[in-house]
Amino acid sequence: MATYARRYGPTTPLPPDVARLVREAFEWKPQGAEKFAYILRDLTKQLAALDRYERRVLSRRKFAIRKLDVLRLKSLAPNLIELDRMIGYNSCRILSFGKTNPIAPCRLG
Fold first, then answer.
1. pLDDT digit string, tens, across residues 3-45
2. What is the pTM of this model?
3. Rounded CA gap, 39 and 46, in Å?
4. Helix count and strand count (H, E) for the chain
5. Residue 102 in contact with residue 96, Cβ under 8 Å?
6. How far apart are CA 72 and CA 83, in angstroms?
7. Nearest Cα to 79, choosing from 48, 102, 108?
8. Which of 28, 35, 56, 100 sits in a 20 to 30 Å window from 84, CA-based?
9. Distance (Å, rounded) from C-alpha 27 to C-alpha 55?
10. Rounded to the nearest 10 degrees, what angle do helices 32-76 and 80-87 cross at?
C-alpha cells in the first residue's frame, strides 16, 4: 500500500482487485475457534495473574485451617500429652496431616 502510494501518488485510486483485498483485510473478523484463540491470547497475562492469586489464597486458607485446628485441639486439652491420653493417639500426627514436610511425631512422656 505505502509503496503503491509513493510510486503513483496518494490520490491515485487503487486497482479494483487491490481495493477489494484491502477492504477484506480491514473487515476481516475471526470466527469460532480462531476467535476464541485470539481472546485467550489477549487475556493470557490476566489469567496467569489470577491463577497466581488463587494459589496464594488457597495456601493462606490451608495455613489458616491448620492454625484453627491447633487452637481447637489446644482448647480441648491445654497440654498435648493430656490430649494424647484422652484420644489414645499422637496429636502431632493430626497436626502434621497433609503437610509436605511434617514435624517429627511427639514423644509421650
1. 777 777 778 887 888 888 888 878 778 888 888 888 889 899 9
2. 0.42
3. 12
4. 5, 0
5. yes
6. 11
7. 108
8. 100
9. 41
10. 100
Distance CA 6, CA 1 (A): 9
Looking at this protein, which amino acid is placed at residue 55? R
Report the alpha-carbon distance of residue 46 to residue 16 in Å, rounded: 43
**Residue 30 DSSP class:** -
User: Cα angle at 52 between 49 and 57, to 5 degrees?
Assistant: 125
Distance (Å, whole) CA 56 – CA 62? 10
- One-letter amino acid for residue 90 of the chain: N
CB neighbours of 40 closer than 8 A, spacing ≥ 6? 47
Instruction: Calculate mean pLDDT across residues 75-91.
Output: 63
Which cell goes with 95?
497436626
Q: Is residue 81 classed exposed, middle or buried when 0-12, 13-18 and 19+ CB atoms within 10 A define those classes?
A: middle
Confirm if 105 and 93 have CB atoms less than 8 A apart: yes
